[in-house]
Specification:
about 400 residues, VC0802-like, Rossmann fold, 2 domains, 14 helices, 15 strands, binds adenosine-5'-triphosphate, binds magnesium ion
C-alpha cells in the first residue's frame, strides 16, 4: 500500500473567529489535546491549513485517541483518517495523464477501501465527499470523487448513493498530503479549557448542576465545586456520589478539579426556632450562595454557577431568584436558566453524566420543609438573616470546608 501515517483529523470551532487572540487560544487547545493524549506513545500534533492533525504512533491507537479528543473543548469535529502524501499521488497522476490513461489515484483508492472495509459495518450504500483545500491538484473534486467512488464500489461491493447514504468517505486535498477519512464525528465545540477564568459551581446531587458545570467548562471556564452536605462531619456524610460526578467532569479537564465539601450544620443550628418553615428554603439558598461566594473569593473564582432553571421548582421562581442574593456582588451564572427539564436531561445523557446523577442521594435541599414561599422579598430576607446570624453561619461553614482534589482523567 502506498499510504502512510494513521492520523486523527480535527477542526476547531469558534477559535477560527478570534482575532488577535487566536494564536493564544490555539496554543492552549493544542496543549489541552496533548494532555488528553497523555500516555499514548509517538503522538505529535500539527497545525495544517486550519486543521489540527494528530499523527499517531500506531493504527491501533486511533479509536482511543479519537474518543479522548472528543472530550477536548474547542474542537468542532474529530475523525480517524489516513494521510496519503501528495508527492507520490502527484507523480502517479502526471504519469497517467502523460500516457493518456484514466488516473488511478492508487494511494487514495487503497486508503478509501481500507477505511470502508474497517468502518462501514452493515452499510449498503455510500458516497465519496471530495474537497480541495489546495486547488493545485491535477483533478477537481468531482473527478476525485468519481475515481475513488468507483474503487470502493468495485472492491467493497457497496452501491453509490448521493443523498442520505449509509456511509460517507471524505477526501480532503491539502498542500502536502490528502486526508481520507470516514466516521467523522461532530465534537462539542466551545472554547479550550482554562481560557475563560475560574468559576465556583454549586454542585448538588441532582441532574442539573453537573450539566451547568459542564456547560461552563465548555465555554473555557476552569471550575471549582462546592457541595453542601448534611451530617456532623465530612467523614459521616456520604459524598461518594458527588465525588463520582466530579470525576466524570474531570475527564473533560486538563487540570485537577477542586471539590469543597461544606457542612450545613452552621445554618441549621441557627435556623431552628428563628426561621419560619415557609422561609426555610429561600434562606437556605441564601446561606449556600453566600458561603459559596466566600469560598469563591478565597479561591480566586470570578463568578458562581448554579443549575437553576427558571420556575423549575419553588426556589427558582423569578421572585425568589431575585430576592435570594441582593448582597452578593459576584455574578451568579445560570447556564440552564432557559432550558426545559427534558433538554437538560438530554444534555446529561449526551455528556455521560446521567447514570451517576440519578444514583440515590439525599441532598440537603430535598429535606427542607415543604410549601416554600414563592414570592420572597429581598428586604425580608435581609432582616431574617440578621435575626438568625446568617453572617456567622456563613463564616463558620466556609471555615469548615474540606477540599478534595480530583485529578484530570483520560477515561471516565
Ligand atoms: P439539581 O438537579 O442540580 O439538584 P434541582 O433541580 O434539584 O437541581 P435544586 O435542588 O432546587 O434544583 O437546586 C438548585 C441549584 O442549587 C442546584 O442546581 C445547585 O446549583 C444548587 N444546589 C442545590 N443543592 C446543593 C448542594 N447540596 N450543594 C451545592 N449546591 C446545591
Ligand atoms: Mg437538587
Amino acid at each position: 500500500m502506498s499510504f502512510t501515517t494513521p492520523v486523527i483529523a480535527c477542526t476547531y470551532s469558534e477559535i477560527a473567529l478570534k482575532g488577535r487572540n487566536r494564536r493564544a487560544f490555539l496554543r492552549k487547545l493544542v496543549n489541552n489535546m496533548q494532555a488528553a493524549l497523555r500516555g499514548m506513545s509517538g503522538v505529535t500534533i500539527h497545525h495544517v491549513e486550519s486543521r489540527l492533525l494528530v499523527r499517531l504512533g500506531s493504527e491501533t491507537q486511533a479509536d482511543e485517541a479519537a474518543a479522548r479528543l472528543h472530550r477536548v473543548f474547542g474542537l468542532q469535529w474529530v475523525a480517524p483518517a489516513i494521510e496519503v502524501p501528495r508527492d507520490a499521488l502527484d507523480a502517479e497522476l502526471a504519469a497517467d495523464k502523460s500516457i493518456g490513461i484514466e488516473p488511478r489515484l492508487t494511494g487514495l483508492c487503497d486508503a478509501a477501501c481500507l477505511l470502508t472495509a474497517e468502518r462501514a459495518g452493515g452499510a449498503r450504500n455510500f458516497r465519496v465527499n471530495a474537497r480541495r483545500s489546495d486547488r493545485s491538484f491535477g483533478l477537481n473534486s468531482l473527478e476525485i470523487g468519481r475515481i475513488v467512488g468507483a474503487a470502493v464500489h468495485q472492491r467493497c461491493k457497496l452501491a453509490g448513493r448521493m443523498v442520505d447514504p449509509d456511509f460517507t468517505v471524505d477526501v480532503l486535498v491539502l498542500r502536502a498530503s490528502v486526508l481520507v477519512f470516514a466516521a467523522k464525528e461532530q465534537s462539542f465545540g466551545g472554547l479550550p479549557a482554562c481560557t475563560s477564568g475560574r468559576t465556583m459551581v454549586l454542585l448538588s446531587g441532582g441532574i442539573d448542576s453537573p450539566v451547568a458545570a459542564w456547560m461552563m467548562m465548555r465555554r473555557g471556564s476552569r471550575a471549582d465545586f462546592v457541595h453542601f452536605y448534611s451530617g456532623r462531619n465530612v467523614e459521616e456524610a456520604d459524598t461518594a456520589k458527588i465525588q463520582q460526578i466530579v470525576r466524570l467532569l474531570a475527564a473533560w479537564s486538563p487540570v485537577t478539579l477542586r471539590l469543597h465539601l461544606v457542612p450545613v450544620v452552621p445554618y441549621e443550628v441557627r435556623a431552628i426556632g428563628t426561621i419560619e418553615d415557609r422561609y426555610d428554603m429561600v434562606m437556605f439558598r441564601r446561606f449556600m450562595v453566600r458561603t459559596a461566594a466566600r469560598l469563591a473569593r478565597r479561591n480566586k473564582c470570578l463568578a458562581l454557577v448554579t443549575g437553576d432553571s427558571l420556575g423549575q421548582v419553588a426556589s427558582q421562581t423569578l421572585h425568589n431568584l431575585a430576592a435570594i442574593s441582593p448582597d452578593v456582588t459576584l455574578p451568579i451564572l445560570r447556564p440552564l436558566v432557559g432550558l426545559d427539564k427534558h433538554e437538560i436531561t438530554a444534555w446529561s445523557r449526551r455528556t455521560g453524566l446521567f447514570d451517576a446523577s440519578i444514583l440515590p442521594y439525599r441532598d440537603c435541599c430535598s429535606i427542607r420543609s415543604p410549601r416554600p414561599i414563592l414570592t420572597a422579598r429581598g428586604v425580608d430576607l435581609l432582616k431574617l438573616s440578621e435575626d438568625m446570624g446568617l453572617e456567622e453561619a456563613v463564616r463558620e461553614a466556609a471555615d469548615a470546608a474540606v477540599r478534595v482534589d480530583i485529578p484530570p482523567a483520560t477515561t471516565a
